[in-house]
Structures are given as structure tokens and as C-alpha cells.
Amino acid sequence: xxxxxxxxxxxxxxxxxxxxxxxxxxxxxxxxxxxxxxxxxxxxxxxxxxxxxxxxxxxxxxxxxxxxxxxxxxxxxxxxxxxxxxxxxxxxxxxxxxxxxxxxxxxxxxxxxxxxxxxxxxx
Length: 123
Description:
By secondary structure, the chain is of the alpha/beta class. The chain has two domains: 71 residues, Rossmann fold; 32 residues. Helices cover 28% and strands 9% of the residues. It has three helices and three strands; from the N terminus they run H-E-H-E-E-H. Strands 1-2-3 form a three-stranded parallel β-sheet, with no helix packed on it. The longest helix is centred in the last third of the chain and has 19 residues.
């Protein structure tokens, strides 16, 4: 799954959602950590409610060495690097340049992380 972390998606994947999944399912989270209720995920994995998980983002980052996910044989943990690739970084660099050029031309950026500032600054 890959969704933004917003109030409606906080703990979107909770115990109920995990129990609704097939026992053969694997949860892959490359979105944002708080989208998954991590304690519910750990409980579901321990109970065999799902087959496993691939986790790149966590509720608490950096990930604690004591986090049970790290010692589970049916879980693959990566250090928040799912978007790291030559193509990914090239795309990020290109988009940053495009957005900066828009602003310098007095245009509104296409991607706005904090839209509340739009009325407060002149482009």
C-alpha cells in the first residue's frame, strides 16, 4: 500500500483490517508508518493472521533496535529507503528544478506540501 498519512488514514490498517486479510497475505508498507497500527500488525503476525510483512516506514523513526518486527522471520524491514533508486533520485532532482522554475516565473507550484502558506506569500 502507498497512501498519504492524513487524519482519515491514521491507523487505517488496524486489527480489524488485518483480520479481514487472507492468512496468505503480506502487508507491504512504503507509505507512512502511522498508516499502520504497528502493535496490531505485530499481534497479527504473531497470531498467524497474515503470512508476513515488508515494512519500510515505521510509527517511530528511527526504528528502535528493540522493535519486535526486527526479530520476526516473516518480516523484511528496510530503513525508509523504498524510494531510493537512480531513477527515483533523478526524478526528485528534476521535479525540484521544475518547481523552483515555476516559482521564479511567478507561477504556483504543482506540488504544495503546505497549501496554507499560499495566501501569505506572493509568488
